[in-house]
Amino acid sequence: MLEKLIFVIFCQIVCLSTAFATDTLDGIWRVEGHPVWIEVKTQDSITIGKVKRHDLKPNSVGTTLLRSLKAVEGEESRSQAEVYADRLKRYTDVQLSLVEPTLEIEAKVGFMTHIVKWRRANDFSD
């Protein structure tokens, strides 16, 4: 009986941490140093980020940039996801760290680590 109770509590904690990690990312983000805006939405427990404005590559609007978001167990402000890497022409695994109003996205490619920062935005304007 105690084992079942512990299992139920564990499942609730995992569900709550996943909901926190995904819901807090919802909104509009601007890629620091680039004229790119991404809208992150969670629907039916699935979080995706799509390009909503890209001043240098307007044809990329609508592209899914962020997908497969999962909370990192025991760390409220960290998540794992996949981000589309244009240079690689494929999705790559990343670590996300949220320190409001900045989201740091860390990707490891070979021996290199690349960090991109997104900042919360109020809308899709400059």
Explain what this protein looks like in three dimensions:
- There is one protein chain.
- The chain has 126 residues and is an alpha+beta fold.
- The chain has 1 helix and 8 strands.
- An 8-stranded antiparallel beta barrel has the order 1-2-3-4-5-6-7-8.
- A hairpin with a 2-residue loop joins strand 7 and strand 8 (112-121).
- The longest helix is centred in the first third of the chain and has 22 residues, at 2-23.
- It is globular and about 35 Å long.
- The termini are far apart.
- The relative contact order is 0.17.
- The model is unreliable at 1-21 (pLDDT under 50).
What is the topological layout?
Blueprint: H1 2-23, E1 27-31, E2 36-43, E3 46-54, E4 64-72, E5 75-85, E6 90-99, E7 102-109, E8 112-121
Antiparallel strand pairs: 1-2, 1-8, 2-3, 3-4, 4-5, 5-6, 6-7, 7-8
Helical percent range? 10-25%
Radius of gyration: 16 Å
Strand residues, percent: over 45%
Order of helices and strands: HEEEEEEEE
Task: Characterize the overall form.
Answer: globular
Detail the poorly predicted runs.
Answer: 1-21
First-last Cα distance: 57 Å
What is the count of helical runs? 1
The number of E-state strands comes to 8
Largest sheet: 8 strands, antiparallel, barrel
Tell me the structural class. alpha+beta
Strand order, main sheet: write it out.
1-2-3-4-5-6-7-8
Mean pLDDT: 83
